[in-house]
Structure formats: structure tokens, C-alpha cells
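Sample entry (841 residues):
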Amino acid sequence: MGLGYDLQPTAAIRGNLQFTTLGLVTATYFISPLGYGLRKSSDKFDVKLAHHALINNLPDGSLLLGIQAQLNTRDVLSKMVEGVDLDECEDYAVESVAAYERIRAIRPRTRIHMLSIPVGTVGTPMSALTRMWSSGASVDPSSISRADMDSYDSTAADILSRIGDDFDPVPVPGALFQWLWEHYLARGALSEPVAPTRIGALEDATAAVFRSAALDEGAQADSGRRVRPSFSPVIKVVQPDEAAWPSYQTILTPLSFPYGGMSFPGGSEFLNLLEGLDDVTVDWGIRVSTRPADQVLKSNELNLRRLGEQMDQRDQEVSFAQNTLMAKAQLLSEYNNHFEVNGGESEVSFTTVIAVGSGSRDTTLNAVNLIKRRYKRFQVDLTAPVGAQVDLWSMMIPGSPARRAYDDFAHIVPSDMWAGFVPFTTNQIGDDSGPVIGVNLLSGNFEPIHFGIMEAALHDLSASFAVTGELGSGKSYFLKLMAVLVHDMGGQFLALDRSQVGEWEHFASTIDDAVIVDLTNPTVSLDPLRLFDSSVAGERALDSILPLLDLSPTSGAGAAVSSLLTPKGIIEHGIHSLLDLFKVARRLRDDPGIGDEYADLAARLGTIVDRVPVLFDPDLPPLRLDAAATVVRSHKLALPTAEELTTPHLYNRLPLTKRLGTALYELVGVAAREAFLSDNGRFGLLVGDEAHHFTQTQVGAAVTSDFSRDGRKHLAAIGLASHDPATDFQGAAHNLIPNRFVFRQRDETLARNSLEWVGVDLAETPFMLQVLREETSPPVGQGRQVPEERRGEMFMRDALNRIGRGKVLGPARPDRAAAITSTPTASGPKQMFALERQATP
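Predicted structure, serialized as C-alpha cells:
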């Protein structure tokens, strides 16, 4: 039985510098893992190159750590409210508290990546016997001078400079060492501390802050047998203050890797197999040392000479030994050739440990067996060596002295092969702050996904987003979720409601200061000459009138209306509305010499004057766009299909009703652009379902482009939804909208288009097509309904081009959730979406 304080090497801590009892000085840093997940191979090779630079410049004895811990949900709450004035946004304050309680119930976890590097020595190294008699304190903290500290910092900075800034190393606070030790002692137990995800003040500490614990290898205290000891590969860790909650831990280490090598990407990232395990905490650590290529070549020459001598000695022997020696010589030749061809290579000796812990012996051992089975499929054999459990357990402690077990289970590979392990990667998606829209499914830790739609605009980034998926997959639900979050955070939104039952109208009725507009039974006017400022009103009216009347701007009638709607023409003829334009055209048709063009114009306008009161009724007040929520119902408008918009001969044959519907649809977007893309200090979101009506027309494409390009400058964004991104998200909608969401899509062609649009390379990961079609919110059972706990599953690409899978949770407030999850019907509200997932993931 080992005692915890015998394994803790720290004598003193100064910030991120650790001084050990043997005189070693280490510097420890938080590492920002690189985005990985479902990105393309070209991006993954960039990640491998960053790890290659890392391993080639690490000093011997460096320690890489991946620590899994409970996420501090208070940090989640602070990220949700970052940048929001809660005194002004009481609705969002209530939503944030409710979301905090929901996330706390889910109990998400995170993986903290760290790097500990030796940067020097201090004092006189002591023997183990001397250290025992002196209580282990060989370093006098008061003797550490400022000059010494500067020297160690300089050495560390030089090492980090050679590594590069891909991993953005940040010095850990002194309190991290104490937290890390307590985490190791309580790994997976009820008393396990939450993760210090935020960096605090750097402080000093001594060995006195580390509590002691008993490490019982084999859990002998639990065995009723007194004669024969237990040989179970498990450590029972008991702390005096937490005796009722021991931690049962098993330390695994790779015994062998595939003989034929591990392909990259897809076959070498073996640490990714440790994610997604329930009821246990799994940490990993890798201790590394390197040799430069010239030393490797000299060693290879010596080994080859020895093989030659053995072959000469067995030249006349009839056995398999000669064949074995020949095979070894061949392998050595290939290994040597690798270093001769790649001059910048180095040889890496590394020892990997995987620590599995929980509050139950059976739970831990069951998880160990599961991990072994996972690794067996990748031809990696794991072992839990009996008798070396405590020694391997100690390897994960920064500053721990070398032990024989580290060398016994070490492996040697070229540095480019080691880089293929890419240990410092993450499947995280979303933003650093903002409202929580869901949880991460790809990482296996269910971390909250933040979508800082308003923060992005404040940080000069595009906040626009697009959604795709089949009918009933959750597109409209997600659009309403984003709209209500924007409203609660003090912004405003305008949404086009194409649904026959008016689901957006029903949703907006729960919001104060909401305006509902029915384009076929209007209560307000969309006349651009009345709606917009006089300096741009004529141009905006022209954009709507020309395609509506099927006129070219250079044709006779087209040139006539273009002349009338210039600033000079508007003043000269007293045109203040579209009805005035019609009256002027009728008056001018009787003028000698110019009547033909105006007669044509008056005739075309006359066909729509009585059909479109929303444009020509002078008694209707103009639409105001300063309301918190504006919903424009367009369900009775005839709109062209995507094929009719993109096929010239079909577009030329469009009936008047569809031209009228398209013109009004575009006009709403133009109105939102004029209102939201202005510096009014308030965030504005334009929401458009049936996206092809925006993106496939000239005016709509311009609106989409303006929101995508300039929304970040004016606190505005556009949210689009459609079924087929390959045809509907063209131009700006495809190239300039960074945030993309893909919900269930069972049609193979549409699923393929959706995954390619979000950035998944199906040539490299063809199985993702099946995941989207069959394993994303799958309808099952009687009635083919989606279980509540599976609703809202989706693929996501964030503003940093990271691709992952997640689950949308929806509003945490019951009243908000009820408003967006129900659709009005003749018989009452019908539940369309789960309020939230059941219990925990």
C-alpha cells in the first residue's frame, strides 16, 4: 500500500513553475486543442504537422495530459450572460437561470489539455534515503530568487517559441497543481472536484497544500482473504477526509500497436476512443523523450553490425533463427532509410497511460473491459499490469521522477508517426460565449454549445446562419429558437411565415410589441415610396416594379418608369406613392409623342392596382420596423418553385400571381435590410424559410449578400432555412454564411448535398451519410415518431469551420418552450417538439 504524499513530488510552486523534491523545475501550461471532429483530411494533416513541430521540440521528460472532469456550470452561466445587460433584458436573465439549472442536471464534462516541460534544476539533488529522513523537502522556497524565476521562464519561452503558437499555451495558475492532485485522488468518485476552466490569479504554494491518501493496489482492504493477496488490477484510493467515498482506479497502457502501422487519418487517433464512457472518468497521459536523426543513424549502424555478427555465427545452423534475423535486418534497413530520407525527423520514446476511475470497483473494471474491446478492434492491445499500477498512476503527476515501469511499457516510433496520434485535438463546436442552444454529441462529454449570435456581430464576425433538413426535422423550431433568443437579449426580428396555420403568428403572439402582417389581407402598407427614405425610395420601388411588370429597364415602358422614379421625376410629378405613379402614367399616356410608353406602363400597372392593396391602398399606414417582433404572413401568396426561378424559359412564363408573390417576398427582405442594416444600436435578425425565394432572385440574392457581408457592421444577421442547400443556398448564402446546421435528411441525394454543404467529405467518411439518414433523430416504433430524447439532433459547422454533431435543446423557460413547440390547429395546440431531453444524455 502506497501513501499519497510519497508520490507527490512537489516541494514548492511559483505560478506555473513547479519545484520538486529532487530539484527538478517544470513549467506547466494549458493547451488549446486544435479543432478536429469531422473536418477534411487536408485540415487534419495541418493538425498533424502542428503535432510534428511539437514533438520534435519537446525536451526529454515532457508530459502531455488530457484530464476529464466535471464542467463548472457556473462558468457556463457566466458565458451565457457575457455582454448582455441583464437589467435591460429580464427575459434573458430568466432564460439563463433556467438553462443553467438544465445544464447542471445534464452534468456535462470537459477535457482539459496540459503540457508540462522540464526547464531546469535547483538546489542539490537528494537521494531517496535522504529525502525520507528530511520529510521530502529538498528545496527551500525562500531561496528561489527572482533571477532564477526569470531564467526558468526564459527557458520555457524558448521551448514554446520552437514549438510554435498553434496550441496557444497559457501558464496554469498555482492552484491548478492542487486541483490536479485532488482530481487524481478522487478520480470518478462523488467527491471529484469540478474543472478550473477559467484561469485565476497566479499564486504561490508549498507541499503542505497536498493532502495525503492511501493507495491500496489490488484493493486488499476489500478482500476477506488474509493469506493470499488480491491480484486484481485496481487501486483503491482512500482519503482521510473522504473515507466514505473511495475511488477505484485502473491504469491501462498499450502493450502493442498494429504491426503494419496505423493509417492517418482515421486509424491512428487512438486516444479518441476514450470519449463517451458513462459513470467513469478517463484521463490519459503521455511521457515523451526524443533522439535526433543523427544519433538514430549511428545506433542503427551499430545494431546492423550486431545482426551481421549473429547471422555469421548461425550461418550453418538449420533453424528459423536465420529467417528471423533476416526479417529484423530488413526492418532495420527500412527504419534507417526513413531517417536518411527525412532529415528533420527524430525518434520518439513514449509511454502512454490511461487512468479509469469511478466510485465502484465493478463499474471501473467493466469500463476497463469496454475500453479494451474498443482498442482490440483497432489492433491495439491494452494491459493493466499488476504490480505496476501505482508506478504508472504516478506518471501523470507533473514532475514525477522516472520509474522503471515507464521504460518497461515505452514504445519507440519516428516523430511523424507519433504526430499521427494527434493527442491535442477537440471535437468542440460553437462559440466561446452566448446562449446555450444545445449539447455536443460528437465529443461524448455533452458540453453545452454556445451560439453567440449577437456577440459575433460585436466582435466583427458574421452572425448569419442557415439551416437545412427534411420536413418535420426541426428547421422551423430552430429558427424560432434563435428568434426568441435574439428578442430576449434585446434585439428584434422579422420573420416570413409561410405556414398555413400561422405557427409564427402563434409564437409572436406571446411576445410584447409584436406586429403581424398578412400580405393578402393587409393592415399596413409595403409601398416602397412610402416605406423608405426619399433618397432611396425610387430605387427600391424600381427594384420591385420592373420584375413584377416583366419590364426591362431599357425597354420603352421600363425606361419610362425608371425616369419617373428618379429623384427629379418624383419631385417634378409629385409622386409620393405607387398609386400616384399609376395616376401619373395614365395622365402622361395622353401626351402627344410620348404616350405609347406610358400607355403600356399604365396598362401593366392597371392589372395589379386592385389586386395588391398592400402596395396601392393609400389609407393603410406604412409598416414600421421598430417593433420587437414582426411576422409577415405570406401563406396565401403564390410563389414560384426553385426550378421556375432558375430555369429561364420557365421564369419568363411565370403567371402574374407568382410574380406578385415574389415581388412582395423580396420587398419584405428589402424593408428588413433598410431597417436592420442601419446603425440604430439594436440587433436585427431577418428570418426566412423557403430560402430559394430569397437566394434565387436578383433582389433576394442582393439582400442575402448584404446581410452576410455587412450584418456584422450594423448588428444584424439573416437566418435561412431550406430543404436542398445544393440548389437553394447559392452565392452569398453558400459562401458567406459561416454557421450551418443540418437536421435529419432521409433522402439520399438531399442528405449528400447537405453534408457536402456543411463541409463533411463523404469520400473520406462515407458512413456519415448513413448517420444523417438513419441515426439523426430517427423515427421509430408505432407511428414512426421520434422519441423525445432523440429530437433536435443535427450536424453543425461553426464560425471557425469546426464540424460536429449536437442536439438542440430549445428554450429552458417553460412558457417560451411551449410557445415555439406547439402549432395552432383546429383542435388546439399540437406538440411538435420535445421541451428538452429526458434527464441526462
